[in-house]
Specification:
single chain; mainly alpha
Length: 207
């Protein structure tokens, strides 16, 4: 097999960099979500139970001791409601601000995965085009009879960049979709706990 032309090598290196970026972002987001306590609904339920049962001090103490997103949002809404009990919109506004801060943190670096999804197939296609140009250029410049095996080898090498780019893009797409799903679930839970803290829970025991 003939050595790869330097443009193809650069494209393979760029694709490898995108794959490393995808893995790095995925690991970072998983660690970040763990630190932020995504999905810790039980602690939030316990805090809400204390708050709605007339134990605001216990609820605020539990919220202050819990580092999760829901606890920080609940701490904001409870502090607003206790500071201005006659103005519930004040507590709601504080909770919305806290939620916006947390959602912004959760969404950080997600655009990197979106960029990988868009860039990887384009780089793969570029590698294929460059490889085909090189393969047919060598064929045209050859003075001897064309060797079909060498031509097939060049085309095979060129097409591998597209395959690699598509594979990387698919992995990045599914990782981004899963992470976005986690963020959307947390967003909905935040909305529910804010509403419950201000207006109370819906009675689900009635048939």
């Amino acid at each position: 097999m003939a050595p790869l032309p330097w443009p193809t090598l650069l494209i393979f290196a760029a694709l490898a960099g995108l794959s490393v970026l995808t893995v790095t972002v995925a690991i970072f987001k998983l660690a970040q979500f763990h630190r932020m306590g995504l999905g810790r609904d039980r602690q939030a339920e316990a805090i809400l139970n204390d708050w709605l049962s007339g134990r605001p001090d216990a609820a605020q103490s539990a919220a202050a001791a819990d580092p999760s997103v829901l606890a920080r949002v609940l701490a904001a809404v409870m502090s607003g409601l206790r500071a201005r009990p006659e103005q519930p919109f004040y507590g709601e506004e504080l909770a919305r601000q806290a939620a916006l801060i947390e959602l912004t943190r959760m969404g950080s670096r997600m655009r990197l995965l979106e960029a990988v999804v868009q860039m990887a197939p384009m780089l793969g296609l570029l590698g294929t085009v460059v490889g085909m140009i090189d393969a047919f250029g060598n064929l045209a410049a050859s003075q001897a009879a064309a060797d079909p095996r060498l031509l097939a080898s060049g085309i095979w090498t060129a097409l591998t960049t597209t395959a690699a780019g598509l594979a990387i893009a698919l992995v990045a797409y599914f990782v981004a979709a899963w992470l976005e799903g986690r963020i959307d679930d947390e967003r909905q839970t935040i909305e529910m706990v804010i509403s419950a803290a201000i207006h109370g829970r819906v009675d689900q025991t009635r048939g």
